[in-house]
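I hope you will forgive my troubling you with a question about protein structure. I am sending you one protein, given as its amino acid sequence and as whole-number tokens for its backbone shapes. Thank you for your consideration; the sequence and its tokens are set out here:
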Amino acid sequence: MLADGPPSRSSGKLKSGVIANGHSRAAILDFILDQLPRWRDRPDRPQRTSETPLTSQLCAHLNSAARKTAGVDYLQFRSEEADEMQPSRKIDMVAAPAVDALVVEGRTYSDFETILPIECKRLPTPSGTGRDEREYVITKAGASGGIQRYKEGKHGSTHERAALIAYVQSQTFEHWQNMIEGWIRELHMAGSPGWTSADALTTERNDVTAGIAVHESVHTRGDLPAIRLRHMWISMQR
């Protein structure tokens, strides 16, 4: 549980005492992971394939689930949220307070602020003019890659913990892990600035029955502190 009791109208309170760095955000990520297959398997969920409607659906489901889950009901999830430092750039999804003020790891957040930024990507990347099959990692032009946006500080520059959700629409988790590892290796071997073998994903869970996989990665960001990413993959092939 993240909260001692139901949050008041004006504030939410985490457990008293010292909370280890990353603990609260890890619990939020665990809540999202637990809800991913529940969202996918809802019989009343309209079938969609595009990223934007899928993410919008997921936000709606997470908000409904949070309201019904003690200890998480102080959270809200919003889609297409402006980045705090670069408002012209939109983050696919964020976790934010659903109360006026929420203390997270010693810092107070208002309901206008982001606690956790989350990028969402389809695997495979849809075909089309200007699309790059490596978009989960990087793009040839601009900074539209999922990991790339975090590494370059285009998203989440004020955060040291963030996430990527992948809607896996074909192939296996192992296939995509191998592809992503290969793309990162190629960037490193080609001498692409900032990319090293340390950017590789580490597998934490691969649950074929539930259709979810979890990976972790840590990425340096120049003058910014390194950022730790949780990669939560959900198979949409049901």
